[in-house]
Design a protein that fits this description.
The complex is a heterodimer of chains A (326) and B (261).
Chain A: H1 16-20, H2 24-43, H3 50-75, H4 83-101, H5 103-126, H6 132-151, H7 164-168, E1 170-171, E2 174-175, H8 176-194, H9 196-206, H10 208-213, H11 218-244, H12 255-266, H13 277-296, H14 301-325
Antiparallel strand pairs in A: 1-2
Helix pairs in contact in A: 2-13, 3-8, 3-11, 3-12, 3-13, 4-5, 4-6, 4-11, 5-11, 8-9, 9-11, 12-13, 12-14
Chain B: E1 7-16, E2 19-29, E3 34-39, H1 45-52, E4 60-65, E5 68-70, H2 75-80, E6 83-86, H3 98-102, E7 109-110, E8 120-121, H4 123-136, H5 153-165, E9 171-175, H6 183-198, E10 202-206, H7 210-216, E11 219-224, E12 227-233, H8 239-248, H9 252-259
Parallel strand pairs in B: 3-10, 3-11, 6-9, 9-10
Antiparallel strand pairs in B: 1-2, 1-4, 4-5, 7-8, 11-12
Helix pairs in contact in B: 5-6
Classes of the chains: A mainly alpha (326), B alpha/beta (261).
């Protein structure tokens, strides 16, 4: 095939960085995490106790699962405002199914309902052409209303006893939610970096027209992306309901914004197809450490919200600044 | 060069409602020939090329590939015949590297650990094939793992062209390939077009930059209000003559008089 081996000697690969999609941004995040750990350990030695770290992992796991799906959606050029309310809807509906039909069917229904809602969002966006903002805002309202209708606004608590293991159990001293979350991160990262599906998601996020002209079935990929995200939201609802030992319509409130925040803090940009699951993992870890550390040194959660706001703005500003410079 | 044309478009007509976009557009191109397609705005250049790429179906007229009559019902059919179009600004995903862009939509896969039910991207093979491709077209890039958005406009255009011929293209259509480029980069793109010709690939360039067309094209075809009004060998015409065809609405026979003036 190659007729002119004498030319283009510098077309050699040096793609280690791009292969792992781990840029200076990710490295900076690792330093920030180490710095936060040192500061909080110094301020309160309880910070680095095994019990505390296991607690952080358990609390953060659910955000991690949602943020994974949110990241895939954002990489494809969309974003999801409905996740929090959909968690509530899945929580109450799958709990009622679980009470009537048992643990296994209840758990499967949570994921199934999530997939269906995700696919619906995807169809609204890809086929009906609604902007993601509008489609998921509509879903936010509808899911919230449905959850309140189904539950009558009351908590549901009669789930089987064994169900509690998902939220509170341990395997080899590791909290089960953290293990589930870790598995989700690994699977999503594999999907996004190693498979054709992931490549197409990035392509659509970067330039939808070029993806279309490259023969990629953009609508199909988008619906798959939203379905995947929906399934993960279902999984998160399951873990959260188990942890709370009761289902409630507003259980996931705020999760949509927290998951977007973790994604953005990790360095994934809205609407440009830039970033990665690994970035989001680091973003979730930063948010978890920050929240826990501030709790340990008795900063009120009101101030914490302000701090998260400042961090989001700063993270995006720094990202834009770097882009303009390069 | 073989004796009969690679592609022939004969007397193509196409109307959109009351608007007659094409009324007798014709063109033929030999293997390894470079043709410049020129005409005023709304002369029908884009529509004409979209008939060839299967985006539009002609109301009347013939399309022949290697002398045989064909119909393209959609862009996929045209592409399978070996016709590729490079659209302005639509060709590449800026957030992906050169390898990913060259193979976008046609990724090579492998089965890790020989597991039949999992397939992952075969990055090494795609990278190797991309390097071979760029060497064949004498395109220099710092690294095939560079993100496209980090490259200059000329390099991006080079990657877009490489991408279009990566899969056995016989004809590449370029829509304003040099319009957005810095002057020193235009030469590089024209070099690549010359390399394509040397490789036996035919090229149709749509451009407003006549100097580029005169630099690289073997023949120039002028379209006016949807009709082919002149075909000239580049060596046997002048920029003045072509400009007169484009803007003046001069009929061929009248132009003979005009140029003899």
């Amino acid at each position: 095939m190659s007729q002119n081996t004498d030319t283009a000697p510098d077309a050699s690969p040096n793609g280690i960085m791009s292969k792992f999609r781990f840029d200076m941004n990710g490295l900076g995040m690792v330093f920030i995490i180490i710095a936060l750990c040192i500061v909080f350990s110094w301020l309160n030695p309880n910070f680095y106790s095994g019990t505390n770290l296991r607690n952080v992992a358990r609390q953060t796991a659910i955000l991690g699962i949602v943020a994974c799906g949110q990241t895939v959606v954002i990489l494809s050029g969309g974003f999801d405002l409905s996740a929090g309310m959909v968690i509530g809807l899945i929580s109450v509906s799958s709990s009622l199914i679980m009470i009537d039909h048992g643990l296994v069917i209840g758990c499967l229904s949570a994921i199934g309902i999530g997939l269906a809602i995700g696919a619906f969002n995807g169809i609204m966006i890809a086929k009906a052409g609604l902007p993601a903002f509008i489609a998921t805002l509509a879903m936010y309202s509808a899911a919230r209303g449905l959850a309140l209708i189904i539950s009558g606004g009351l908590p549901i608590t009669d789930m089987p006893f064994e169900f509690g293991w998902i939220g509170a159990g341990q395997i080899l001293t590791m909290p089960v939610p953290a293990l589930i979350s870790l598995l989700v991160f690994l699977l999503c990262s594999f999907l996004m970096v190693k498979t054709r599906f992931g490549r197409h998601v990035y392509a659509i996020g970067g330039n939808q027209d070029s993806a279309l002209f490259s023969g990629i079935n953009v609508d199909r990929v988008k619906i798959l992306v939203w379905s995947l995200h929906g399934g993960l939201v279902g999984l998160a609802a399951l873990v959260l309901t188990s942890r709370a030992v009761s289902a409630h319509a507003t259980l996931g409130e705020g999760m949509e914004l927290e998951s977007i925040a973790a994604t953005v803090i990790g360095g994934t940009a809205l609407g440009r197809g830039r970033g990665s699951i690994l970035n989001t993992f680091l973003g979730v870890v930063v948010m978890a450490i920050l929240t826990n550390g501030l709790n340990l040194i008795n900063v009120s959660s009101y101030y914490q919200m302000v701090a998260i706001g400042i961090i989001i703005a700063t993270a995006v500003y720094v990202d834009q600044f770097k882009r303009v410079k390069s | 060069m073989s004796n009969h044309p690679l592609i022939e478009l004969i007397d193509i007509h196409k109307a959109f409602g009351p608007v007659q976009a094409l009324s007798g557009a014709s063109l033929s191109i030999m293997p390894g020939e470079v043709i410049g397609l020129v005409g005023d705005n709304a002369a029908g250049k884009s529509t004409f090329m979209k008939v060839l790429t299967g985006v539009h179906q002609p109301d009347s007229g013939e399309i022949k590939v290697n002398g045989e009559r064909v119909t393209f019902r959609d862009p996929g059919e045209s592409r399978r015949t070996g016709i590729e179009m490079i659209y302005q600004n639509l060709a590449l995903a800026p957030n992906l590297d050169v390898v990913a862009n060259v193979f976008l939509g046609r990724e090579l896969l492998r089965h890790p650990l020989s597991l039949p039910f999992i397939s992952v991207l075969d990055e090494n093979l795609m990278e190797q094939k991309t390097i071979e491709l760029l060497q064949r077209l004498k395109i220099n890039v710092k690294s095939v793992r560079l993100l496209v958005e980090k490259m200059s406009g000329g390099q991006q255009q080079a990657v877009a062209i490489a991408r279009s011929v990566a899969f056995e293209a016989k004809l590449v259509i370029m829509d304003e390939p040099t319009a957005a480029l810095a002057v020193k980069e235009v030469g590089k793109v024209l070099d690549i077009i010359n390399n394509l010709r040397a490789d036996g690939v035919s090229v149709i360039i749509i451009s407003h930059r006549l100097q580029d067309i005169f630099n690289v094209a073997d023949r120039i075809i002028v379209l006016q209000t949807g009709k082919t009004i002149a075909t000239r060998r580049t060596k046997e015409t002048t920029m003045d003559e072509i400009v007169k065809f484009i803007v003046g609405g001069v009929q061929p026979e009248l132009s003979q008089i005009a140029s003899g003036r």
